Automatic annotation (TrEMBL), chain A:
This is Branched-chain amino acid transport system permease protein. InterPro entries: ABC_transp_permease, LivM-like. Coiled coil: none annotated. It holds the Pfam family BPD_transp_2. It comes from the Bacteria. The chain crosses the membrane at residues 31-50, 57-79, 99-123, 130-148, 179-198, 229-249, 261-290, 317-334. The keyword DNA-binding does not apply. Its main location: membrane. Keywords: Cell membrane, Membrane, Transmembrane, Transmembrane helix. It is a multi-pass membrane protein.
TrEMBL record, chain B:
The keyword ATP-binding applies. Residues 1-20, 273-294 are annotated as: Disordered. This is Branched-chain amino acid transport system ATP-binding protein. InterPro entries: AAA+_ATPase, ABC_AA/LPS_Transport, ABC_transporter-like_ATP-bd, BCA_ABC_TP_C, P-loop_NTPase. Keywords: ATP-binding, Nucleotide-binding, Transport. Residues 25-274 form the ABC transporter domain. One of its GO terms (molecular function) is ATP binding. It comes from Azospirillum picis.
Amino acid sequence: MANVSIIPSGDFKTSYAADTTIFPTKTSRNFAILGVVLLLACPAFLDRYWLSLLIQIGYLGIAALGLNILVGFTGQISIGHSAFFGFGAFASAWLNNSLGVPVALAIPLAGVVTTGVGLIFGVPAARLKGLYLAIATLAAQYILQDFFGRADWFTGGSAGTIAEPLTIFGFAFDTDERYFYVVLVAMVVMYILGTNLMRTRDGRALVAVRDHYLSAEIMGINLTKYRTMSFGISAFYAGIGGALYAHYLQFVSVENFTILFSIQFLGMIIIGGLGSIMGTLMGTAFMVLLPEVMQAATKLVSGTAVDTALNLRENIAFLREMSIGLVIILFLVFEPDGLAHRWKQIKAYWKLYPFSH
Amino acid sequence: MSGAPVAPHPGSAQKSPTTPAETIFEARGVNLRFGGVHALTDVSFGIRKGELFSIIGPNGAGKTSMVNCISGRYRPTDGKVFFKGRDVTGTTPNHRAALGIGRTFQNLALFGHMSVLDNIMVGRHHLLKNNFLTGPLYWLTGARKEELAHRREVEEIIDFLEIQHVRKATAGTLSYGLRKRVELARAIALKPDLILLDEPMAGMNLEEKEDMARYIVDLNEEFGMTVVMIEHDMGVVMDISHRVMVLEFGKKIAEGKPEEVLADPRVRRAYLGEDDVEDDVPSASSPPARKEVA
C-alpha cells in the first residue's frame, strides 16, 4: 500500500473539515509554506540566470497545469497547447498595446480571451476521442499558428510584438528580481485554484468523465459540457502562462509556439505525473532543468576521452533533444505515474523504514 | 440528508403494496432494435412507487436493455417511457439522474482511480451547486461549506453500507464485493426515487449476498426508494421482490407477484427449464403439450 498517503499515528481527524485539507498532514503543509518562503528569499541570493530558470518554471508550470487538467484529469489528449499559450501571450500584449488595458488587468483578461478560443476548439473536440481528438487538436495548433503569422493587427506578423513590462502603481516589474515575485504569486494562486477545483464538484466530474464516462453520465454529468469545459479551463491556464511569458520577455514572436513546444508541455505532465497537481510542477521543473543538468554533464566529460570520441561540445543541443526524448521513453516504461508517484513512494519508504508494511 | 436514512418512508409499513399505488415509472410498447436484432419487442409495464420490482429472464433476454431504456443509455426505437407521469423517452441519462433515476451496472463501473469517498461524492453531483468558478475559490464562495455538508451525508451512506474502512482507498484496488457495495453507495448518493440495480449480487458468496439483500430491502423500506432489480439468484428474487417481470427473447412473458410468476408454466419453460415443468406441474400439461414445447 505504498501509494496511500501515510498519516502519522496519533494524527486523528476529528472533523470533516480537517479531513478535506489540501495537505494531508500539518508537516506537509508546513513544508509547502517553508518552500514558498524560501522562494520569496531567492532573489536575495540567486543570480539572474537561476532566477530566469525559476521564472520559466513558474509560467510554464501554470500552462502545464492547464494541460494536466485536460489530459491528466479529464483524459482528453491535446497536442495544441503551445498555440493557446501563444494566444495568451499575444492577447495580453495586444490588449495592452492596442486597447490600453493596464498590464495587470491584461494578464487575467488574456486568460479569459484564451478561454474563449479554447472553447471554440473544445466544442468540436469534446465530441471526439483518442486519435481523432489528437488530430483535431493538432489542427488547432496549426490553425492558430497560421493565424499568428497572418494577423498583423494582433501579433505584429513575422516581426512580432512588443509587450510592455508589468507596472503596478508606477512600480515596474521589469527586472528578473522583481518579475520573479509576480510569477511566484501567480503560480501559487493558480495552483491553489487548480487544487480547489479538483476537490470540488466540477473537478470530480472531470475525473469521473476520464475514469468511466458511461457511469459519469448516469451520475448526472453532462459529458459534452464537461469535456468542453475542460478545454476552456486548460486554455485559461495556458493563456495566463503565456501572458506572464509575454510580459517577462517583453517581446513575443510568432515562431516560438510550435508543435515541438506543445509536445514539451506533454512531456512535462507525463514526466511529472498525469492527474497530479504537484507532479505538474515537478515535471515542469524537470524539463526546464534537464538541459542545465545536461550542460553540467557535458562540462564534466569535456576534455575526456569520451568527449574526443563523440565530439560532444558541438552536439549539445542535439544531445539535449535526444535526452528529453529518451527520458520520456524511460519514464513511460519505468514510472508511468510520473515523478509525483515516485516522490510518494520515496516518502513512504522513509516513513516506514525499516518495516515497509 | 433530509432525514432520509433513518426516517422510515411513509409507505414502508406495507411489505407488498397490494393496493394499486401511484405509478412511478411506466413503459409503453417499448421496442429496441439494433439493426436486425430485436432486443426488446413491445414491452409494457408499470412500476409502482415504493415497490421492489425484479426483472428476470434467461441470458440475453433483454433485461439490461430494458434497464438501459429506463436509465436513458438507450433510447427505445419505438414506444415511450414515462417517469413520474412525464414522458422521458428523449431525455439524456445525465438529465434523468437529476429527475431521480439512479443505477448500478452489471459490470463494475466505478471511477477506478478515485477514492471511494470521491466516487460517492460524484453521486452528489446534481445536488451540489458549486461549479468551476465557485469551486476554485473554495473558502470564499461557500463551496467548502457545501462540500462538507454533503460529505456528512455521504458518510451516512458509508455507515449504512459498512464501508468505513475503505473510504480513503482507491476504488480500483478494492475486492469485488466491496466494489459492488461502493457502486451501490454511489447510486444511493444520487438520492434517486427510482434505483436500478443490474445484478447486484452477481459473483458474490452467500454471506455477501445476504448482506446485499438486506441493504436492498433497507433501501426500499427505510430510504423509501423504488427499486428495480435484475437478478439471477431466484432465491433472492422470490424472497424480497414485491413483483416480478419475466422477459424472454425481448418479450414480456409474465408479470406479477413472485409466487404467481413462479407458478406460470411459460416462465418455468423459459427460465427454469423444462424439467421443472415435468416435475412440478404434471397435471397441467399432458404429454402432447410437452412435445409442442420442445
